[in-house]
Amino acid sequence: MSASLSRPRVGVWLIGARGSVATTVVTGCAAVTAGLHPPTGMVTETPAFTGSGLPALSDLVFGGHDTLDCPLPKRAEALTAGGVLPPGVATAVAAELAAADREIRPGGPTPGDTRSEAELITAFAGDIRDFVHRHELERAVVVNVASTEPASQGPHAPLPASTLYALAALRAGCAYVNFTPSEGMHHPVAAAEAGRSGLPHAGRDGKTGQTLLRAVLGPMFAQRALTVRAWSGTNLLGGGDGAALADPAAAAAKNAGKERVLADTLGTVPEGEVHIDDVPALGDWKTAWDHIAFDGFLGTRMILQTIWQGCDSALAAPLVLDLARLTARAHETGLSGPLGALGFYFKDPVGEGPSGLGEQYEALVRFARSLGEDKEGRR
Ligand SMILES: NC(=O)c1ccc[n+]([C@@H]2O[C@H](COP(=O)([O-])OP(=O)(O)OC[C@H]3O[C@@H](n4cnc5c(N)ncnc54)[C@H](O)[C@@H]3O)[C@@H](O)[C@H]2O)c1
Question: Of 27, 65, 101, 224, whose CA is between 20 and 30 Å from 196?
């Protein structure tokens, strides 16, 4: 990605770099930088973030790991055909896609991989360090946007790939963001290492659709003293995420975050479940229904139903860019540990913080202001 050499540049190392979200991140960043599209959906481009000292979009350099070898321009072509990317954009930013593609290294473990966990962590960390050195980057943020893994297998099972990458990020001296429900830095081994590292981290699982609505509606029911009797939800989606979530163990990891939002905002866990159905024909387009049964005055029974129809990668990509910029700046100002103030972005936030979206937004803006007040930071 082209950028002024006089300004410090920041790396964004994407785990799952050839996926839908990652491809939309790289394409979108280049398109907005070139003035081809406005930064719709990027909270960090709104006035409240002007003085926060965040790296400019034009100063971000992309690389990453993936276990697939489909070239990024081809992925962008497929996303254009699916209506995720607008026509012409992938062609207009072909040079930036090709540059990011050259920085993608083979991930792992792949089937038949004989490397030990220690060898994998060393290899991943080496790739990240090499990227930072070759591009003379000020720092890099590692962002997990790889396929959702099955829910935790317990502390004695082999480390999940997401945790190997999280440990590699720490080894390479990078801040870390987990945009997925996978274990990553939540694994006890990584959590202990993160505590010692002095590096900031954020996560987990981006809040882009159904859970975003739940974080608004949950506080509404609680503040109006209405009793929620049941809250049920169904999601239909395709694409790589739909296929990964067809595995009940992976879906369980995802649904735990969706249910946490209700428990935190309502103070109780209402009856009802969340289902995720893989519908390959829908591609990246998701439909999420929620059915909320609640009691009003004198026990009068009522129902609210919501229908969310979104394009998942278009919802996620601006948030990934926001998170990379905020976490890089947090690292620059010397912050370490879980960044609870970024709970606005996540279903299952790390650290301390409120659960309703309104309060989460206020906490985020306060955090952004504090990043700007840091006198040590160089921006
Ligand atoms: N789109 C959203 O709104 C949204 C919201 C929250 C979370 N997420 C999460 O973001 C992630 C990415 O979603 P997507 O739609 O881009 O999925 P995708 O299937 O298109 O992309 C995932 C990529 O990860 C790669 N991958 C799998 N295992 C890997 C490994 N061990 N090492 C390196 N790469 C690996 C795959 O090859 C693929 O290219 C998912 O976990 C999803 O749950 C997405």
Answer: 65
